[in-house]
Write a structure and sequence with these properties.
Blueprint (H helix, E strand, L loop, with lengths): L2 H12 L14 H21 L3 E7 L4 E5 L3 E5 H11 L10 E5 L11 E7 L3 E3 L8 H21 L5 E13 L4 E10 L6 E9 L4 E9 L3 H12 L2 E3 L15 E5 H6 L27 H8 L5 E3 L3
Parallel strand pairs: 1-13, 6-12
Antiparallel strand pairs: 1-2, 2-11, 3-4, 4-5, 5-10, 7-8, 8-9, 9-10
């Protein structure tokens, strides 16, 4: 089912008697009701297919493990692709390891937020320069880089993008070897800005990449859950940051500053600065459907332990 059907059904419910489009085509109430029923069936089928997981979850090929408590659930790479593409309207081929959700929401709800999990095996990232970075100066350069990227986006037919500023100033926990920061981004003329909240967990051979998908209005809730989410991911013995062996292991070509700026990691040039997962344009709850979907999604998560 195309996602446009969900959008159409949403508008139908806002005007149940009829719907006039720009070309004055009127959709009768019975057709709107049929579209709503189809949407409910589609949403129910997707929710029934998602396998919620909790407990210890090994992340293949990373040497890391997630520990998902009762307050959250984890979706596998396959299920995460379903949510990101089919439900939230992102391009296919996202290649994430999975997603973490609060336990009390489904992906179909406007108040939902999630954390994508990825891994970049570029080597050991030195943190020697962490205390010396001027993040305000870096922000000005990032704004200019984003403005340059925006010009190229517009030439290719995409909406412009601008970096508004830090939503949370970068902070590096040198004891835990975890880095987090947040950017406020504006796409086109959208009235609501996008929150791009990032976590990086440094390991012996690479970095775990955890990114929040949420709206700016959810920043207070994200901040409340930040410490909990930071504690969910850890590298296993032998793969931790302190296990680094300079005689055996590769050193990354960048440091802490480049993790924040993103320029070294941008494998497709400036345009990679704009690769931010979105959800706000792909979430439509239809008159009490949230309660129905929660009931459909109330099955007990599957406990998972590492192999």
């Amino acid at each position: 089912m195309k996602f446009s059907l969900a959008l159409t059904a949403c508008f139908m419910l806002l005007a149940p008697l009829s719907y006039a489009s720009a070309d004055e085509t009127v959709v009768p109430q019975d057709e709107a009701a049929q579209q709503q029923a189809e949407y409910e069936q589609w949403a129910g089928q997707i929710l029934a297919s998602l396998q919620k997981q909790q407990g210890k979850i090994a992340l293949p090929g990373t040497g890391a493990t997630l520990t998902i408590p009762d307050e959250f659930y984890f979706l596998s790479a396959k299920d995460a692709e379903t949510v990101l593409v089919d439900v939230w309207g992102n391009p296919p081929g996202q290649n994430v390891l999975g997603m973490i959700f609060p336990a009390n929401v489904t992906p179909f709800e406007a108040e939902s937020w999630a954390v994508t999990v990825e891994y970049e095996q570029d080597g050991y990232v030195s943190d020697e320069d962490a205390a010396e970075i001027d993040y305000q100066e870096m922000l000005q350069q990032m704004k200019q880089d984003t403005a340059d990227a925006s010009k190229e986006r517009v030439k290719q037919g995409y909406e412009p993008i601008s970096l508004v500023g830090w939503a949370a100033t970068p902070f590096y926990d040198q004891a835990a070897h975890k880095l987090h920061w947040a950017k406020e981004i504006r796409f086109g003329d959208n009235e609501v800005n996008t929150l791009n909240y990032n976590i990086r967990v440094l390991g012996r051979k690479g970095v775990l990449v955890l990114n929040f998908i949420a709206g700016m209005e959810q920043l207070p809730e994200i901040n409340q859950n930040l410490d909990t989410v930071l504690a969910l991911a850890a590298f296993d013995a032998g793969a931790t940051y302190t296990d680094f062996n300079p005689e055996l292991d590769q050193v990354a070509a960048y440091g802490i500053g480049a993790l924040v700026a993103g320029k070294v990691l941008a494998k497709t040039g400036f345009l990679a600065l704009a690769l931010v997962f979105l959800k706000k344009f792909g979430v439509f709850i239809l008159l009490g459907l949230g309660v129905l979907l929660r009931k459909l999604f109330a099955k007990k998560p599957s406990p998972t332990t590492p192999d």
